[in-house]
Amino acid sequence: MQKKLHRTVVAKAKTVWMDGRYLPLKKAQVPVLTHSLHYGSAVYEGVRFYKTKSGTAIFRLDDHLTRFLRSARAIGMHLPYSKAELTRAAITLIKKNGLRDGYLRPLAFYGGQMGMSPVDCPVRVVLAVWSWPQHFETKAITAHVSPFRWRDPKSIVFDTKVAGYYATSILATLEAKKSGFDEAILLDGNGYVTEGPVENLFMVKNGRLATPRAAGVLPGVTRDTIMRLAKVKGLTVTEKNITVAELKKADEVFFCGTAVEVTPVSHIDKKKIGSGQAGAVTMLLEDNYRKVVHGEEQRFKKWLTDV
């Protein structure tokens, strides 16, 4: 039997925020003839909130909502709510669900009619929250270089999270699981490393960090966090083209993202990375990241929104 590679997350929140109203989860329903359900015309964010010594706090909410609004504009969607209104709704929603730490999902989508153009479709907005266990069941995970290529930057609006973009991520994830790996690594059209299905990637060689160029990946909020933390720790970070051969010769490789946080990679395909365990740089950044999101680093408390 194939081992379970990802944890299954079941949203058990009692209440969601939908189109300006707080509703029981079971009443937050969407008609089957919804534009976004058929064409992928939705935008979303993944945001984490954590228990800190002073209470629950949402990590980098402002940055996530800024991108949420930018993603909406990219597909001609005009949200009927401001960033401030969404912030207040998110805080209230977390309180209503009684969660101390978990995951926040802002989602905006086109409702209404069929047909490719969404011009006359109403815009609907949802906020949902749920508890969030560890994304992977093992500390260090295996990764597989996917035969599916990452989206071409010339075919999308850069630095946005549009639901339809992630069909390739689904294909890569399914193929990696079928092949017996925990996660996929996607390449661009030129064969350079980009990222995982929903997370950015870093490598470490001789104590120096490298990550794929921002022009070829989603420059994630967690990616930015890691780069800033690395700088504080005196580490060198280079954005560059990375080949598969170079990646497999790295001393350390790790994924980072809202869901996976900092997750070390033990093997790429059948090649062991370093010792096959989390390396010293990965562990340093993972420890610092956890301190930051839990409000233990004073200089980065500006990234926390109190609930």
UniProtKB/TrEMBL annotation:
<keyword id="KW-0100">Branched-chain amino acid biosynthesis</keyword>
<comment type="pathway">
    <text>Amino-acid biosynthesis; L-valine biosynthesis; L-valine from pyruvate: step 4/4.</text>
</comment>
<dbReference type="InterPro" id="IPR005785">
    <property type="entry name" value="B_amino_transI"/>
</dbReference>
<dbReference type="InterPro" id="IPR043131">
    <property type="entry name" value="BCAT-like_N"/>
</dbReference>
<dbReference type="GO" id="GO:0009099">
    <property type="term" value="P:L-valine biosynthetic process"/>
</dbReference>
<dbReference type="InterPro" id="IPR036038">
    <property type="entry name" value="Aminotransferase-like"/>
</dbReference>
<dbReference type="GO" id="GO:0009098">
    <property type="term" value="P:L-leucine biosynthetic process"/>
</dbReference>
<comment type="similarity">
    <text>Belongs to the class-IV pyridoxal-phosphate-dependent aminotransferase family.</text>
</comment>
<comment type="pathway">
    <text>Amino-acid biosynthesis; L-isoleucine biosynthesis; L-isoleucine from 2-oxobutanoate: step 4/4.</text>
</comment>
<dbReference type="GO" id="GO:0009097">
    <property type="term" value="P:isoleucine biosynthetic process"/>
</dbReference>
<dbReference type="InterPro" id="IPR001544">
    <property type="entry name" value="Aminotrans_IV"/>
</dbReference>
<dbReference type="InterPro" id="IPR050571">
    <property type="entry name" value="Class-IV_PLP-Dep_Aminotrnsfr"/>
</dbReference>
<dbReference type="GO" id="GO:0052655">
    <property type="term" value="F:L-valine-2-oxoglutarate transaminase activity"/>
</dbReference>
<keyword id="KW-0028">Amino-acid biosynthesis</keyword>
<keyword id="KW-0808">Transferase</keyword>
<keyword id="KW-0032">Aminotransferase</keyword>
<keyword id="KW-0663">Pyridoxal phosphate</keyword>
<dbReference type="GO" id="GO:0052654">
    <property type="term" value="F:L-leucine-2-oxoglutarate transaminase activity"/>
</dbReference>
<dbReference type="GO" id="GO:0052656">
    <property type="term" value="F:L-isoleucine-2-oxoglutarate transaminase activity"/>
</dbReference>
<dbReference type="Pfam" id="PF01063">
    <property type="entry name" value="Aminotran_4"/>
</dbReference>
<protein>
    <recommendedName>
        <fullName>Branched-chain-amino-acid aminotransferase</fullName>
        <ecNumber>2.6.1.42</ecNumber>
    </recommendedName>
</protein>
<dbReference type="InterPro" id="IPR043132">
    <property type="entry name" value="BCAT-like_C"/>
</dbReference>
<comment type="function">
    <text>Acts on leucine, isoleucine and valine.</text>
</comment>
